[in-house]
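Handoff note, outgoing to incoming analyst
You'll be picking up this chain. Sequence as last confirmed:
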Amino acid sequence: MSTEVIMPQLGDSVSEGTVSKWLKREGEAVTQFDPLLEVSGDKIDTEIPAPVSGVVLKIMTPVGQLVKAGVCLAVIGEAETETAEKAAPLQQAIASNGHAAEYKGYISPVVARMVAEHQIDMTQIAGTGRDGRVTKKDVEGYLAS
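Most recent structure output, in case you need it:
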């Protein structure tokens, strides 16, 4: 089974971006929430995380290509069991925490790592980001309280 990595809407008025750098190569193992590539837009530069753990089977968009939201950037497939076990410590930490799985919004790689490290219940944090997303500052504020 494979999963497509889809170009997200980067902002309310930003519907396209340019692939500026691939952080993983075809055949390389990735863990869910690992930064996969960097995308630059008119108003924002961001990392796109891997939506699932697995192996990068195919990179669909080369560096320098302008892509619109909704376009497939890459395909990630199932990894061998041994590779998946080595590549999935963050996903396993989040799953064992259980709280991130209950949260239904987008979780950035930075927030995912903080949640896993500190065993935070994501449902207890009020997101102040776009569409109620929990940001790094939200998590830092929660930890400070």
